[in-house]
Design brief:
This protein has 482 residues and is α/β, with parallel strands linked by helices. It has 16 helices and 16 strands. The protein is globular and about 70 Å long.
């Protein structure tokens, strides 16, 4: 069997695509490749135009061929001769059943009726497709096989919490709270004068309050950027920048020494589902008098300026606090990422919905317990045995790519108090119950082994894809004989 695979984001453009829509599909394809390669010859294609030509070439010599489009259904091609399967991650319990913006594929029924089948990354997503298309529709739930790549990180007896001597080296941009001199007074000190960006009297007459606020914010941001550029040009070499400009200068091979209990989260600050502001505020409130607690945020976004001022403003408003917040901005290669996993004690997730959550699965595959809710894809592998569970409640929401923003679905609203108390519960476990932490570590490792090991996932993929490719080949032979 031959599997043609395609993803919108590739190795050549992933660094510039961090934080952009569908960037995570690059990592999803990367995780599935080892399992796919166990069951078939895998051929990556750069464009959809190549698919049918390769399909004709290989079926002509008797090969069974299927095209795996690693993308959301609304971006999956529907007019190919090659049997097409959509591999997607989805974070809601129902799926779009209406078109918009003149694109019929936004109604997933249009796509699913025209392709051979679909692979969802969670049971909830697969059930949502069956509700829409009928119980007999060819859809299956298969997780990304991440365990094999991270299982070797865990020591034989499980992780010990609060290990001393942990060091993490990082090349990129870093914002480290203890060295910033954070204070709410500092927000005023570094702001441009209000009159520098007030709209004109005529503008006030013509625009409403909301639009006036947008103009004020854009003007303030531009004034701050110009002020920063001027200060950067005038700053002597080696001088520490003021808090409002912290993290604006690249740090080469910075060495961070970590101690105490280390929490880590990997997220896109542009993705409102991730609740990164709640992750920070709950942490700083839980540990405002606890110096040996550290939160590492690895931001997956191509533009530091998108969130830097928001982050510094947030930390300044929370000050004073004794815990440590360390924010990393930049691309981590595989070895650096494994080091980040190793120096952490817990992984933190506070999202309103997940299609899969690869970072959470990766940390758990290495034996790291979690602080996370139980909903959407996380229902498949998170419970009280492997995590401190954060409480949520259901509320109305819209599908993420719906430009109309109509409330057609549901999401899971975070309970901030539960998140804050969860931080403290994790801290107590790590500090006061070393054996309990070690057992939770082992259970997390075992849970992901039984859920996302490569041989297990490969068997599921073969059971689903091989019949689709075989039926297509049989139809092609019948057509030729007729």
């Amino acid at each position: 069997m031959i599997i043609l695979v395609s993803s919108k984001i590739t190795q050549s453009n992933i660094q510039a695509s961090l934080g952009k829509p569908e960037y995570s599909y690059f990592f999803l394809l990367k995780e599935f490749l080892p399992a796919l390669e166990r069951i078939a010859r895998v051929i990556p294609v750069d464009s959809v135009q190549e698919v049918d030509e390769l399909y004709r070439q290989h079926t002509a010599v008797g090969e069974k061929v299927v095209f795996l489009s690693v993308s959301p259904p609304q971006q999956t091609p529907v007019d190919l001769s090659c049997p097409t399967v959509c591999l997607f991650a989805w974070e809601f319990d129902n799926v779009p059943d209406q078109p918009w913006e003149g694109e019929p594929r936004n109604d997933w029924r249009y796509v699913l009726q025209r392709i051979a089948g679909a692979i969802a990354c969670s049971r909830e997503s697969a059930d949502a497709v069956r509700k829409l298309m009928g119980a007999d529709y060819p859809v299956v739930s298969i997780p990304a096989p991440v365990w094999t790549r991270f299982q070797d990180l865990m020591p034989e007896q499980g992780w010990q919490s609060c290990r001393e001597g942990r060091v993490f080296e990082f090349t990129g941009y870093a914002i480290d709270s203890p060295i910033l001199g954070l204070s709410a007074d500092g927000l005023v000190q570094h702001m441009a004068r209000p009159e520098a960006f007030q709209p004109s009297v005529d503008a006030k007459r013509l625009i409403g309050r909301k639009e006036r606020s947008r103009i004020l914010f854009r003007s303030w941001r531009e004034a701050m950027r110009n002020r920063h550029l001027a200060r950067q040009a005038a700053m002597p070499a080696g001088k520490q920048p003021p808090p409002s400009e912290a993290g604006a200068h690249p740090v080469q091979a910075c060495r961070f020494e970590l101690s105490g209990v280390v929490f880590t989260s990997v997220l896109n600050p542009r993705d409102g589902r991730k609740n990164w502001i709640d992750i920070v505020t709950a942490f700083c409130w839980a540990f405002r008098s606890t110096p040996d607690a550290t939160l590492i945020l690895k931001m997956t976004h191509h533009d530091l300026e998108y969130y830097r001022i928001v982050l510094l403003t947030l930390l300044s408003r929370l000050a004073p606090f004794q815990c440590r917040v360390l924010v990393l901005h930049g691309f981590l290669d595989d070895e650096q990422y494994r080091e980040l996993v190793s120096v952490s004690d817990f992984y933190v997730n506070a999202s309103t919905g997940e299609g899969l959550c690869l970072p959470l699965m990766e940390f758990m595959s290495s034996g790291k317990p979690a602080l996370a809710p139980r909903h959407t894809a996380m229902l498949d592998y998170v419970d009280e045995d492997v995590a401190c569970v954060v409480q949520t409640s259901v509320e109305l929401a819209c599908w993420a790519h719906d430009p109309c923003g109509i409330m057609r679905t549901r999401r899971h609203r975070l309970n901030w108090q539960s998140l804050m108390e969860g931080y403290r519960a994790c801290y107590r476990l790590a500090r006061e119950d070393a054996e309990g932490y070690r057992h939770m570590s082992l259970r997390a490792w075992q849970r992901l082994r039984d859920f996302s090991d490569v041989p297990l996932v490969a068997d599921q993929l073969e059971s689903f894809l091989a019949p689709l490719a075989a039926s297509s080949a049989a139809e092609k032979r019948l057509g030729a004989s007729a």
